[in-house]
Design a protein that fits this description.
The chain is of the alpha/beta class and 518 residues long. Helix content is 63%, strand content 7%. It contains 25 helices and 6 strands. The chain is globular and about 75 Å long.
Length: 518
């Protein structure tokens, strides 16, 4: 897998425009992560700068940049300079191969300053297509994925990201949102800041505005789940955490979902989700503690003792685990061991001598950190290795593998990954009926019915099929277009008289028609 340092050197001689250097970091980090090219975070980069005694915004030689890249364990670095004169903004960017210590490629872009985001997006697109010869989007399609933002809103957002105190950050982000009320990056940062200030009621008002189509949706859902959890709205907390898992099966999300479910009477999925967290990270003591605590509360002291013992082995300084284990062992009539762990609990926390089972507050341990980077890097690595393996195989084999992988992701409800695979297949052959059909199913799943219709129509142009006609008929029926639905049902049954979907829909249409006549 290739990883890239975020821009280590974006400089200008105009000090009033220094914020633009940081804006390149923001844009490229956002847009390069959409591929198997995985950006190093700004926090990782700045930690290396500090260790090497380098200024964060310095104008470095290529040798220094390569040294920074090596320290970051990055394969490539994207760097550059920008200039603004006579109403024209111009950029000169370099892609440096850190492993080979050489310049890999150069990119130049220019345009009016108010097209800054588009210029930056073109740089990102050129980096991505440099590595991926069948990248499925042209420049305009790629740019549209990230949305238009007024330059003044973008500037305030970037200045908020650069600000060192939360008060200044919040002021900049609120100003960005006032300029563009649909600016999801600013909305997310406002919600996150209120969460950090433990103003959960205000935080959730902002985070609820992030939709599934937006970049920060999963991270926003994570903090939203925590907002609801701390507000003791456990049903909504569970729903928020669940919304993340179809795309990002993260250990901390499984843990938090289980913690929320454990506070809902009658829930049957608590143990399964805690076990998923343990399977994902068997070295995390809190996951064992939570499952042991859940069994302890449920009165099932055998497994409670087992998991609490595991937790204590991983974290021998955990007074609560020692106390609960002692309590479980007492119930199991293992008096000597129970006394041992009760003494240990008192040594670790003198207040433990006054604890009683009835007086303990809720002890579930939710995770406050959201770290999807490691999971995305693993997924990106596997994707990259798969692409390398496919690269030299005949196009027909590449198409077949992309279709197979896309269907697998579709069945797992991993819509974004499925779309990527179908788009890769279509880049090799734009007339793949099956790929367009699956894209139609995904658009329908996401509620984009008109886009779903477009995909199914393209599928039909590539290959006439009863499945496609029946799918279109259902879409028209749901859009209350009965005549169009009837035409598609007739076309499906002409090709396949026993097609169950078409027959069922014909019955519905006939029933609706007869009801309307009455």
């Amino acid at each position: 897998m290739a990883s890239a340092s975020p821009p280590s050197r974006w400089y200008t001689k105009n000090p009033t425009m220094e914020w633009i250097g940081q804006s390149f970091v923001e844009t490229l980090n956002e847009q390069l992560v959409s591929s198997w090219l995985s950006p190093v975070t700004e926090e990782q980069r700045n930690a290396i700068y500090e260790r090497l005694g380098l200024p964060y915004d310095g104008d470095f030689s290529r040798a220094t940049l390569i040294k920074v890249g090596e320290e970051l364990d990055a394969n490539y670095a994207v760097v550059g300079s920008y200039h603004y004169e006579q109403s024209e903004f111009s950029v000169a960017a370099e892609l440096i191969n850190v492993d080979a210590s050489r310049l890999e490629a150069t990119f130049g872009e220019k345009g009016p300053l108010d097209t800054l985001k588009k210029i930056q997006s073109r740089i990102a697109w050129r980096v991505l297509t440099h590595f991926d010869s069948i990248f499925p989007y042209n420049q305009e399609e790629f740019y549209k994925q990230f949305g238009e933002v007024p330059l003044s809103a973008f500037e305030n957002y970037v200045r908020g990201r650069r600000a060192v105190d939360s008060k200044s950050q919040l002021q900049y982000f609120l100003k960005a949102e006032r300029i563009d009320p649909a600016y999801s990056n600013a909305i997310f940062q406002i919600g996150r800041l209120y969460f950090q200030q433990k103003d959960y009621a205000t935080s959730q008002l902002w985070l609820r505005r992030i939709t599934k189509e937006e970049r920060h949706f999963h991270e926003a859902a994570f903090y939203l789940g925590l907002d609801y959890y701390f507000m003791k709205n456990f049903d909504k907390a569970a729903a928020a955490f669940s919304s993340i898992l179809t795309e990002l099966p993260l250990n901390e999300v499984y843990n938090n979902l289980a913690a929320a479910l454990s506070r809902i009477a009658g829930s049957t999925q608590v143990v399964r989700n805690y076990q998923k967290a343990i399977e994902g990270d068997p070295g995390e003591p809190d996951f064992y503690f939570n499952l042991g605590y859940y069994f302890w509360k449920s009165g099932d002291q055998g497994p409670a003792a087992r998991y609490l013992r595991e937790s204590l082995q991983l974290n021998p300084q955990d007074a609560e685990a020692a106390y609960l284990l002692a309590n479980s062992l007492e119930t199991l009539k293992q008096a000597d061991e129970s006394s041992h762990f009760l003494r240990l609990a008192s040594r670790l926390n003198p207040k433990a001598v006054n604890w009683t089972a009835a007086s303990l507050p809720p002890l579930e341990r939710v995770k406050l950190n959201y770290d999807a980077l490691a999971f995305r890097e693993l997924r990106a690595t596997l994707d990259f290795l798969q692409e390398q393996k496919l690269k030299n195989r005949p196009p027909a084999e590449q198409i077949s593998e992309h279709l197979r992988q896309g269907v697998e992701y579709f069945d797992e409800l991993r819509n974004q990954d499925a779309v990527r695979e179908f788009e890769r297949a279509l880049a090799l052959d734009p007339n793949l009926s099956e790929a367009h059909g699956y894209l139609g199913r995904i658009r329908e799943r996401e509620g984009e019915l008109e886009d779903a219709i477009k995909e199914w129509k393209i599928s039909l142009r590539a290959a006439d099929s009863a499945i496609a006609h029946a799918a279109l008929a259902h879409l028209y029926y749901n859009l209350n277009r009965p005549k169009d639905a009837e035409q598609e049902v007739a076309a499906a049954l002409a090709l396949e008289p026993e097609n169950r979907d078409a027959l069922e829909l014909r019955a519905l249409l006939q029933q609706k028609s007869s009801t309307g006549k009455r």
